[in-house]
Design goal:
The chain is mainly alpha-helical and 462 residues long. It contains 19 helices and 4 strands. Strand 1 and strand 2 form a beta hairpin. Bound molecules: arginine.
Length: 462
């Protein structure tokens, strides 16, 4: 098949090279954005008198028909075309004849593709943000139900201090709010138009770049034509924001995997979100969370692919940049898959409150509170810390807990201990009194969910 640019060539390109060069298998998904960009371009060409008004209208009509035909399935995208830009232009020309050949006036595929990716990712960011928002709302709902569900908090995966399950979940809500914030930021820098940069050096035609940007709902034209066609920062920024978000989902997944184990049994996933083993009849595996942890590696890889692809490229467009799409589309596709599986999985899990509480009741998780008890009676913290350490050692030697240790043993270490020590180190006091802003007390958790819902609304309206 002769290529659209075949004029200069004396023979056909080798068929293997054609296949190697082609990007249609992965850029066909941008057909809608390609057509939107072309409609804006054709509109502007007409308004500026660069082409006749009737040609402009004919081009717009033809493009709209192509869009409708692709959407209805009437027109199939040719898998042998070089890329989506060439396919649509060729189709337009076959429908409109010479008028179709006017569309590419004052434009290059270099500014065209840069525009299409921006428009495509702009739509994807909206979808991803709404999925993250749904996850945050689900977390708030569950946290409110479990604002007083006591569980052990960990450092070094060792029981540290008692917290509430609601508090634990709201930590993830905070991370996810930052993810939306990052996506807003990425979106803002992405939503600038490279159209009119031409191949690299703009054009001699009297185009109006502000007008095409406006028609496409973008904040304005990119300020330099070389940068316009050679910038892929927006892909890297998005891949990076998505990597961070995936890292959050991966940490959460890791915790869910631990919590599902018999060693913890804090939660159980619904059967619909677990899988069995082909040999071990007792198994119920948290495959979904493991896959999310695995796919995080892949999204981080996409980010690295993009950085490595760009790092040695001279200005302006280089064909290496065609590799941007598979990497960023992979990241976008996978995070959407992960989020849309994770949300219902979370909503349907069963929480074993009693197991969480039992785990919190052991492991001397209230030792800090025991030391604080003495501090509140006037003792310096370091002294109180040492006395409590002695009491913990005593409990370990007798295989008991601070809650079960008789008062006389407390008194043997320090006369300041009275009967009220038991209340002071009870789990409910330990958690209930930690009502500092952002703390684990039930009332603090409720305040956090309220603030989170409010911040989410603000971020979604930005
Ligand atoms: N398919 C190409 C890409 O994805 C479109 C731009 C081609 N430009 C060029 N000068 N060959 O990057």
């Amino acid at each position: 098949m002769a290529m659209m640019w075949a004029g200069r060539f004396s023979k056909d390109v080798d068929s293997k090279v054609n296949a190697f060069n082609s990007s249609i298998s992965f850029d066909a998904r941008m057909y809608k954005q390609d057509i939107a960009g072309s409609i804006a371009h054709a509109t502007m060409l007409g308004e500026q008198g660069i082409i006749g008004m009737s040609d402009s209208l004919e081009l717009i009509g033809g493009l709209k028909e192509i869009l409708a035909d692709i959407e209805s399935g009437k027109l199939e995208i040719d898998p042998n075309a070089e890329d989506i830009h060439m396919f649509i232009e060729a189709e337009l020309t076959s429908r409109l004849g010479d008028v179709g050949k006017r569309l590419h006036t004052a434009r290059s595929r270099n500014d065209q593709v840069a525009l299409d990716i921006r428009l495509y990712l702009r739509d994807e960011i909206k979808e991803i943000k709404s999925l993250i928002a749904e996850l945050i709302t689900a977390l708030c709902d569950i946290a409110e139900k479990h604002s007083d569900t006591v569980m052990p908090g960990y450092t070094h995966l060792q029981r540290a201090q008692p917290i509430t399950f609601g508090q634990h979940l709201m930590a993830y809500a905070q991370m996810l709010l930052r993810d939306i914030d990052r996506l807003n930021d990425t979106e803002r820098r992405m939503n600038v138009s490279p159209l009119g940069s031409g191949a690299l050096a703009g054009t001699t035609y009297n185009i109006d770049r502000h007008r095409t940007a406006e028609l496409l709902g973008m904040s304005g034209p990119m300020a330099n034509s070389l940068d316009g066609v050679s910038d892929r920062d927006f892909c890297i920024e998005l891949a990076s924001a998505l990597s961070v978000c995936m890292m959050h989902l991966s940490r959460f997944s890791e915790e869910i995997i631990l919590w599902c184990s018999w060693e913890f049994k804090f939660i159980e996933l619904d059967d619909a979100y677990s899988t069995g083993s082909s040999i071990m009849p007792q198994k119920k595996n948290p495959d979904v969370t493991e896959l999310i942890r695995g796919k995080t590696a892949r999204v981080i890889g996409d980010n690295v692919t993009l950085l490595a692809m760009m790092k040695g490229l001279p200005l302006a467009y280089n064909k290496d940049m065609q590799e941007d799409k598979e990497a960023i589309f992979d990241a976008v596709d996978n995070i959407k898959l992960c989020l849309s599986t994770f949300i219902p999985m979370l909503k349907t899990m069963t929480v074993y409150k009693a197991n969480m509480r039992n785990a919190a009741a052991r492991g001397f998780i209230n030792a800090t509170d025991c030391a604080d008890y003495l501090v509140k009676k006037g003792m310096p913290f370091r002294t109180a810390y040492k006395i409590t350490g002695g009491l913990v050692a005593l409990c370990i030697s007798r295989d008991t807990t601070l809650g079960d240790l008789p008062l006389k043993d407390y008194k043997s270490q320090c006369e300041l201990f009275e009967d009220d020590i038991y209340k002071a180190i009870s789990l409910d006091t330990c958690v209930g009194e930690r009502k500092t802003f952002g703390g684990p007390a039930p009332e603090s958790v409720m305040a956090q969910t309220e603030l989170t819902r409010k911040r989410l609304k603000e971020l979604c309206n930005e």
